[in-house]
Structure formats: structure tokens, C-alpha cells
Amino acid sequence: MPEFELTASPSPEELATIADALSAFNNSDVGPSDRRTLAVLIRDTDGKVTGGLSGFTAWGWLFTQMLYIPDTLRGTGLAGELLSRAEEEARARGCRGAWIDTFSPQALRAYLRQGYEVFGELEDFPEGRMRSFLRKNL
Q1: Does the reported pTM lie above 0.85?
Q2: Which CATH superfamily is domain 33-137 in?
Q3: Which of 23, 30, 44, 68 is 20 to 30 A from 106 (CA-CA)?
Q4: 54: burial class by Cβ within 10 Å (0-12, 13-18, 19+)?
């Protein structure tokens, strides 16, 4: 029988072992992911990053992991601009779809305005909120 260890602090090497093994399995199962990082940064006049979008493309899809607009720039359409720029690059990389998730009602409205559609929801994640999963054909 294998031994199990529950830990809140795995080493980077231990996590890499899991990631590498899963990647090797997925490569043999469905082919290489061609995973590539993608970011669209917002910089202030001094060149400092103040927000932006980060994610990756893999298996023909764009996944937006994080999107942050500084408080002073919210409501100016920047979320749509960030998404459009990321989607344009994803198309150039051969992607056919995009997905994102959020539990922010404001972000949900912004994503819906950009043509994303809800394909799944988790109630009370976090408590009192709805986590929405959205997709868009590119």
C-alpha cells in the first residue's frame, strides 16, 4: 500500500512531480497542450504595472486566470479591452474558444457584455455568492 501525507506546504519539487506526471499522461491521452502564458498588462505613467489580465492558452483555448482593474480605472471599459487583446492573441495562437470564471457580479456583467455565456454555476462559492463559469467562441 502507498503511504499518504497531507501537507499545507509541499515543496516545489513535489508539486513539479505531480504536474510533470499529469502532463505526460495528458500528452499520451489527448496530445500536447501547447500551453503558453499570456498577459495583458496595465501600466501607469511611470511604467509600473497596476493591473491587467493573466492566463494561458492550451489545447486551443484561452483561459483567463486573473483580471484586475485598478479602482480608479473601473467603469471605463478596460476589462473589455483587456479581454479583446487577449482573445486576439489567442486567435493568433490558433485558439477556438475562451473561458473564465468569477464570483463578482460586476465582473460577470462585464464578461457577458463581451459576449461570454454562462455554462455552469456553483452556489455559495464563496458563501453568499455565485461562482459563474463562462465561455466564448473565438
Answers
A1: yes
A2: Gcn5-related N-acetyltransferase (GNAT) (3.40.630.30)
A3: 44
A4: middle
